[in-house]
Specification:
Blueprint: H1 2-30, H2 37-47, H3 52-76, H4 83-121, H5 124-130, H6 135-174, H7 178-188, H8 191-217, H9 222-257
Helix pairs in contact: 2-6, 3-4, 3-6, 4-6, 4-7, 4-8, 4-9, 6-8, 8-9
Length: 258
Amino acid sequence: MLKTIQLSLHSFLEEIGALAFFTQRFFIQLFRGAFEGREFVKQCYVIGYKSLLLVGLTGFIIGLVFTLQSRPTLQEFGAVSWIPSMVSISIIREIGPIITALICAGKVGSGMGAELGSMRVTEQIDAMEVSGTNPFKFLVVTRILAATLMLPLLVIFGDAIAVFGSFLVEHFKGNVSFMLYFNQVFESLEFGDLIPATVKSFFFGFAIGLVGCYKGYTCKRGTVGVGMAANSAVVYTSVLLFVLDFIAVFVTDLFYDL
């Protein structure tokens, strides 16, 4: 039993070290050589635009369900008028960023792991190295940068759709007008709600791109490894997102307590 724990711990520390080395290599390659602008724009389209429907649908359902679940309890205390501020603050501060990040981890992270993993096992990456192309710069750097840039935009889009879904519930159940609802939303929001949520979204996007590319780029064991790379990319990224979210909330709490 003890030996199994030691082996697991050793494997975990090796994985952390390899990921740290991969991160260091990313920052070195980021500022070295020509920037792959066309590939970067393509990845922004794949990661950002092609995820809009999924993120929008998820945000819309979250707004509907959150308001429907909260309304009866608040109605008992005569606090229905607090729904716009409560829902908007909850979604923008926490629910929107973490749910959007988890959705993208499943869609984007697994896609990166599978795509780069298949390129690795079919020796396409080796062929790029032989031909003189820098595969790390072309495949990894562009994807990580695109994920880092696109996720905050997806979070903002998802938050807006979620708040609109909440408004629809209030409009049909409480006969609340569009102007009244969103006036209350904007009156309750402060920069302290928007800035930390936006900043941590960049870190979420970086984590999704980094882990997905790492798992795919270092894929081994043939076609079986491709599935393992896609699966482990989602699992590792999801855990890392929760850790980053806790750190962000903790740091924000310390900052506002000063």
